[in-house]
């Protein structure tokens, strides 16, 4: 059984006919070819598939595609606008916060969600915000520094969604 | 004369960062091709069983299923050092999780549904799960036909009709006499469980069987050329008929070295009339089907004089290879020749046995056996220091390798080896060694400090080589072609820095394409063992010199000046002292054209290569020889806090010092060390496979197998780099990528003793283990 859904991804209107069992992650990767969002475990434990749902970070592998009906989704592909890197993206580069890069899109989306709800986050808030995003390469220090750097650069303004 | 460096040693940002922060980086997971099929696997539920029958009829009848394979139709053995593995289990299964049947179908859903329709009947066989028991006479043989397997002759020594895949011996001096003469002795045993690499990108491969026995492969691998070579050997195909692409790779840590899913994807494609087949390991298969780090049981006997000088060391390392040892044999070998730690010991006897069991099999993992052996050695060093009533740091200083010493394989320790004692001194000073920890603010918490040394050399064949091609572009930029893989270490950025330095051009004008392709990129053995920056760096230096020679030769004729009087600087060639006569590289890159139209030279393409120098096989009976291109030394010091009511341990500080020879890029080097230390923390505190009594793997998922999260990192980490140059290293550099994770568990184990007075001999040092021991202690007193 399929469902017709209407939603936006990175501001673009989308329409899809999806099986009831399809995850949002598969919809993004397989139907919309937005492969920046990664699958690391498929059971909501690693955070590689983190996207924003109406501005809030969620794991796309645990959400059904039909639930996206009427919702606004943001993925890593929408982070840079007009070829200009976002403040967060530039901060990840400057702080050396990416190594193999597989966790990076999900990590940036979690950080983006944090800076929307808490533009001047404390250290503990940053750690809490990415506690569900596993990274095997960096040891997290540079990622925490990157998010701190982005918050400082934004000067307390919410990260532009 | 000290050469002034423009780019080397600078914190250049990684070239791949933009692709990675924008989602533009394509990994094998992200690739697809027209007509591509998806594969799923049927796994063995038993640790040891005979396959009685496989019924695939219902699966075959499923619409959309294009190929089903079992081990019966695939009569090949494969492996890197020991060809003991099959593509799919044949006749018997040797571990729970082993792939038995593979299905390729139009979609992954269809493939999974078809797998559920496959019926496999098994007859359970005895399973041997403990490597020590597996060595006993009469133990169930995991490989009864061991003597029929091909292996690297003269390097590995399997024992037919036993479970021993390899026995590495190290014999130096007279251990029996020396230990009799010792004034103080210690015997202790230690255990490490198997652990997983946990790359965030699970293994993934797409393969296509093409007409005329050709094959094209896209794979998440550390080893494009080794994959090609092993595919060639396995399927008896010419090398040139196999093309291997490696796009961005989401972490490897050794688990993606050698062969992975490539042979399976290929045979499925062949069976499916040449349609491309994609095989992506699920996270559970990454834990349960693909290889892990081997477990280890070690017994260490140390004899010392009362003044602290170690006179003898006898060690037995029993490696839990699991069901296959195709790569694990070399871990057992490398760990043996490093098996005394970074110490000078005249009388040494080491037996390292790589032993088959009915468990998930082992492979290379960052540190290649050294984290495991040093868990024992560095804990034993502390225990021995206490027996001698000596400070553990002082005891180590007495015994550390110094100029004029020889290693346990007879290698002379020289001034070019790096300075282990400087590493120790640096970390003890930074942690405030000898000063008691500040007491915690609550009475049920205690603090302690610990130290540990580390060392490692690249474990690789004596003939390991690599090559580099540099093409100059029309704008005078440099395109660097390599086949080593940058799966996150940052080596490509470092190689660009070296090319920029050598060619005297801005870093922005250097470029490495982010896909290895064996059709176009020149040979590199494989990207393991912290060797890529060293060997690739040397090859880039040679390739750059080749380019400069060609540029000078053309400029010499253009300027009518002997080429030895020309210098290359800032992207131009000119007679020394006459920059006004400069000819830019851009003018020369494709050949030089005189005013009248006559042209000379041609496109500038430089070739560089490097091969390991002076290495020898080890003597089969004594282990004497030269196995190491270079050694990297380091030390950690940690401070921990333990809650004696709950067993919770918090790491307050980890200080790490590494003798890097030369830090080529401080930002990337730091990234390797911080990341490696936290990976080591995972091995120390949380990670380890748990098996049921009948050999089922109980924690093959992130729910039950925890790796460090952002909440688990120490309050503080400090990194100290020493730069005692490595002769033969590019700018004096030596490898440091694996080393940070080695000995982190040892330092924490030593700090736990300092805090609690309890000896922990088994990893991981999780809260449960700590609390159990605290309660046992409380009951005993």
What does this structure look like?
The complex is a heterodimer of chains A (161) and B (781). Chain A contains five helices and five strands; from the N terminus they run E-E-H-E-E-E-H-H-H-H. By secondary structure, chain A is α+β, with helices and mostly antiparallel strands. A five-stranded mixed β-sheet of chain A has the order 2-1-5-3-4, covered by helices on one side. The longest helix of chain A is centred in the C-terminal third of the chain and has 14 residues. The relative contact order of chain A is 0.17. Chain B has 781 residues and is an alpha+beta fold. Chain B contains 18 helices and 29 strands. In chain B, helix 10 packs parallel to helix 17, helix 13 packs parallel to helix 14 and helix 16 crosses helix 17. The model of chain B has no long low-confidence stretch (mean pLDDT 97). The chains are: A alpha+beta (161), B alpha+beta (781). At the A-B interface, helix 2, helix 3, helix 4 and helix 5 of A face helix 1 and helix 16 of B.
Strand fraction of chain B: 15-25%
What is the rounded Rg of chain B? 27 Å
How many domains comprise the coordinates of chain A? 2
Helix fraction of chain A by DSSP (H/I, runs of at least 4): 25-40%
User: How many helices of chain A does DSSP assign?
Assistant: 5
The CATH architecture classification of the largest domain in chain B is: 2-Layer Sandwich
Question: How do the strands of the widest beta sheet of chain B line up side by side?
Answer: 3-5-1-12-9-10-11-20
Remind me, CATH topology of the largest domain in chain A?
Ubiquitin-like (UB roll)
CA-based shape of chain A: globular
The tally of domains of chain B stands at 3
Average pLDDT confidence of chain B is 97
Protein structure class of chain A: alpha+beta
Helix content of chain B: 25-40%
- Spatial order of strands in the largest sheet of chain A: 2-1-5-3-4
């Amino acid at each position: 059984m399929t469902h017709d859904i209407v939603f936006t991804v990175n501001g673009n209107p989308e329409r899809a006919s999806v099986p009831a069992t399809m995850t949002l992650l598969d919809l993004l990767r397989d139907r919309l070819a937005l492969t920046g969002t990664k699958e690391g475990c498929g059971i909501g434990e690693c955070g590689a598939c983190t996207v924003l749902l109406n501005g809030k970070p969620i794991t796309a592998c645990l959400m059904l595609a039909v639930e996206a009906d009427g919702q606004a989704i943001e993925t890593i592909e929408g982070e840079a606008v007009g070829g200009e890197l976002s403040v967060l993206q530039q901060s990840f580069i400057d702080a050396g916060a990416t190594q193999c890069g597989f966790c990076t899109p999900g990590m940036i989306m979690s950080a983006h969600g944090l800076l929307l709800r808490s533009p001047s986050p404390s250290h503990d808030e940053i750690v809490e915000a990415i506690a569900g995003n596993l990274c095997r390469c960096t040891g997290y220090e540079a990622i925490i520094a990157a998010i701190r750097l982005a918050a400082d650069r934004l000067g307390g303004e919410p990260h532009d969604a | 004369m000290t050469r002034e460096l423009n780019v080397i040693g600078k914190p250049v940002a990684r070239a791949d960062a933009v692709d990675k922060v924008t989602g533009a980086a394509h990994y094998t997971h992200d690739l697809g091709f027209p007509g591509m099929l998806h594969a799923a696997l049927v796994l063995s539920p038993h640790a040891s069983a005979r396959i009685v029958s496989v019924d695939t009829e219902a699966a075959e009848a499923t619409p959309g299923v294009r190929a089903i394979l079992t081990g019966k139709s695939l009569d090949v053995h494969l492996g890197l050092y020991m060809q003991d593995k099959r593509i799919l289990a044949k006749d018997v299964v040797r571990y729970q999780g082993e792939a038995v049947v593979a299905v390729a179908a139009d979609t992954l859903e269809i493939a999974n549904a078809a797998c559920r329709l496959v019926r496999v009947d098994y007859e359970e066989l005895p399973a041997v799960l403990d490597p020590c028991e597996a060595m006993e006479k009469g133990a169930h043989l995991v490989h009864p036909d061991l003597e029929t397997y091909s292996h690297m002759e003269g390097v590995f020594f399997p024992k037919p009709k036993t479970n021993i895949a390899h026995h590495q011996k190290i014999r130096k001096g007279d251990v029996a006499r020396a230990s009799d003469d010792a004034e103080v002795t210690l015997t202790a045993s230690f255990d490490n469980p198997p652990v997983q690499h946990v790359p965030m990108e699970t293994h993934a491969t797409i393969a296509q069987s093409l007409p005329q026995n050709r094959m094209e492969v896209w794979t998440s691998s550390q080893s494009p050329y080794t994959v090609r070579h092993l595919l060639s050997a396995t399927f008896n195909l010419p090398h040139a008929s196999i093309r291997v692409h490696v796009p961005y790779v989401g972490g490897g840590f050794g688990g993606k070295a050698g062969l992975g899913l490539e042979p399976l994807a290929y045979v499925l494609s062949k069976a499916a009339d040449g349609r491309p087949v994609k095989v992506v390991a699920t996270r559970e298969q990454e834990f349960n089907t693909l290889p892990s780090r081997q477990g280890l049981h070690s017994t260490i006997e140390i004899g010392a004089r009362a003044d602290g000088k170690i006179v003898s060391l006898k060690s037995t390392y029993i490696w839990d290879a699991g069901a296959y040892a195709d790569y694990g044999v070399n871990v057992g070998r490398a760990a043996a020749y490093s098996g005394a730690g970074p110490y000078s010991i005249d009388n040494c006897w080491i037996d390292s046995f790589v032993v088959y069991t009915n468990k998930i099999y082992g492979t290379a993992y960052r540190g290649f056996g050294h984290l495991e052996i040093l868990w024992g050695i560095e804990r034993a060093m502390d225990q021995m220091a206490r027996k001698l009533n000596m400070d553990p740091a002082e005891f180590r200083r007495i015994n550390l390798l110094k100029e004029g010493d020889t290693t346990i394989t007879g290698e002379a320790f020289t001034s070019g080896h790096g300075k282990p004692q400087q590493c120790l001194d640096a970390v003890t000073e930074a942690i405030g060694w000898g000063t008691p920890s500040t007491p915690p603010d609550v009475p049920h918490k205690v603090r302690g400090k610990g130290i540990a040394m580390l060392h490692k050399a690249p474990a690789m064949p004596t003939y390991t080589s690599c090559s580099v091609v540099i093409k100059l572009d029309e704008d005078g930029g440099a395109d660097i072609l390599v086949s080593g893989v940058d799966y996150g270490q940052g080596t490509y950025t470092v190689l660009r820095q070296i090319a920029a330095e050598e060619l005297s051009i801005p870093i922005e004008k250097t470029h490495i394409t982010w896909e290895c392709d064996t059709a176009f990129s020149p040979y590199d053995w494989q990207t393991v063992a912290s060797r890529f920056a060293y060997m690739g760096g040397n090859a880039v230096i040679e390739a750059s010199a080749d380019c400069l020679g060609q540029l000078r030769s053309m400029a010499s004729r253009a300027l009518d000046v002997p080429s030895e009087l020309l210098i290359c600087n800032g992207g131009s060639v000119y007679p020394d002292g006459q920059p006004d006569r400069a000819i830019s590289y851009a003018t020369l890159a494709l050949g030089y054209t005189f005013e009248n139209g006559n042209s000379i030279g041609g496109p500038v393409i430089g070739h560089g290569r490097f091969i390991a120098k002076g290495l020898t096989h080890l003597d089969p009976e004594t282990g004497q020889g030269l196995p190491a291109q270079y050694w990297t030394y380091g030390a950690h010091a940690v401070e921990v806090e333990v809650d004696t009511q709950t067993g919770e341990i918090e790491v307050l500080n980890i200080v790490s010092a590494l003798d890097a020879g030369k830090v080529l890029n401080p930002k990337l080097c730091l990234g390797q060390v911080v990341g490696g230390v936290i990976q080591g923390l995972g091995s120390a505190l949380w990670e380890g496979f748990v098996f049921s009594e009948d050999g089922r793997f109980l924690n093959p998922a992130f729910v039950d197998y925890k790796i460090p999260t952002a909440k688990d990192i120490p309050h503080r980490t400090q990194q100290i780099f020493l730069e005692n140059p490595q002769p033969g290293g590019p700018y004096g550099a030596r490898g440091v990528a694996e080393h940070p994770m080695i000995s982190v568990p040892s330092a924490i184990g030593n700090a736990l003793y300092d805090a609690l007075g309890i000896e922990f001999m088994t990893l991981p040092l999780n809260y449960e283990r700590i609390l159990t021991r605290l309660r046992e202690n409380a009951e005993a007193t």
